[in-house]
Specification:
Blueprint (H helix, E strand, L loop, with lengths): L2 E5 L3 H13 L3 E5 L2 H10 L4 E5 L7 H8 L7 E6 L3 H10 L3 E5 L3 H18 L8 E4 L2 E4 L4 E4 L2 E3 L3 H12 L4 E3 H9 L9 H13 L7 E4 L3 E4 L6
Parallel strand pairs: 1-2, 1-3, 3-4, 4-5
Antiparallel strand pairs: 6-7, 7-8, 8-9, 10-12, 11-12
Helix pairs in contact: 2-3, 4-8, 6-7, 6-8
Pfam families: Response_reg, Trans_reg_C
InterPro entries: CheY-like_superfamily (IPR011006), CpxR-like_REC (IPR058124), OmpR/PhoB-type_DNA-bd (IPR001867), Sig_transdc_resp-reg_C-effctor (IPR016032), Sig_transdc_resp-reg_receiver (IPR001789), WalR-like (IPR039420), WH-like_DNA-bd_sf (IPR036388)
Main location: cytoplasm
Amino acid sequence: MASLLLIDDDIELTELLSEYLTQQGFDVSVCNNGKEGLQVAKKESFDVILLDVMLPEMDGFEVLKALRTHILTPVIMLTAKGDDFDRIFGLELGADDYIPKPFNHRELVARIRAITRRVEFCQQPSTLNQKLQVSHLSMDLMSRSVLCHDNQIIVTGTEFEILHMLLQKPGQIVSKQDISVHVLGRRLAPFDRSIDMHVSNLRKKIQTGTHNPIQTVRGVGYVLTLGDDA
């Protein structure tokens, strides 16, 4: 049973959503303000955090920024419908995905399950002790750790999955649509910049000098280009 932390100040919504998610087989904890939510997230372990943007005491961005200093639990931001700034800013701070309010409950469940499948995949016997390495970049699927020039870099779950896809196909184009379906569990909608933002964050973490291993193929996707001297 996946454990969820729902942080939202709309008490009526959290009651209804908590009941629905519990019926879908999730173990749900609820906090109605940002400060309390951050404290609970630090003390307890969750599979996914559902985080509203507009919160009392600490807004969702402040909570996410504080979380990402040492906690990489996947976060789905609950944003206002049509507010692109909130979505992009949340992704820049390290959110794994977002869903605009009002949302379809079944879509939210699909987003959550797409994220929790990552954990289930890593727990399968076939992934134990499996490692990938291309030039100076390597990852361990069991520990979900990434090394760049033998230095560990901290990546979110979404960034890890994107890099995993690229490392599996070095020198080959991986489409944004394939990344979205595999990592976020949904097809990429027109003007959706989610994958772009995750790749941008990942690039900053694996930049080596003037060379960046992840190159954009405009209108198609991304390709990992690593040489011995990169």
